[in-house]
Amino acid sequence: MSRIGRAPVDVPNGVDVKIKGSNVRVKGPKGELARTFPADIIISVEDGKIVVKRPSDEPRHRALHGMTRALINNMVVGVSDGFEKILEVNGVGYRAELDGENLVLYVGYSHSVKMEPPGGISFEVDARTRQIKVMGVDKEMVGQVAANIRMVRPPEPYKGKGIKYLDERIRRKAGKAGKV
Length: 180
What we know:
Layout: H1 3-6, E1 9-10, E2 16-20, E3 23-27, E4 32-36, E5 42-46, E6 49-53, H2 59-80, E7 83-90, E8 95-99, E9 102-106, E10 113-115, E11 121-126, E12 131-136, H3 139-152, E13 162-165
Antiparallel strand pairs: 1-6, 2-3, 3-4, 5-6, 7-12, 7-13, 8-9, 9-10, 11-12
């Protein structure tokens, strides 16, 4: 049995969960999320906890069991606490700033790169530490927006210039050896 799928999801105070068949709607202080899961998986609320069960031991059901529980947990954590990813801008003259809600990146191109946040996502920029914070309630969306920002100028291995995740380590390469 899936160890992740077997664990119930705790529902904190202030979070409202509505389950109608395979549709799950979670509402909390930070926002609201809804998602439709495969109809085979059984989702129910018991004693203030969300329990996910599978109908059989088929490989398809076993795969969906843990994934469904993890997605529901991400929904509950997102509407109660929210998610954030922090990116760091490295390089001489490289910087990021906010223009209203839009993120503007100056990363060595002849033009600035403007990125609009999708619904439910917000940006925060610290010019002193050169960090970009991507925040939202949907973990999948936060991760995708952060990946899109990183794709504008991925870090390069020689000088480490570019946009990287805060906890990311860049494998550095030695430059040219030169004549001896």
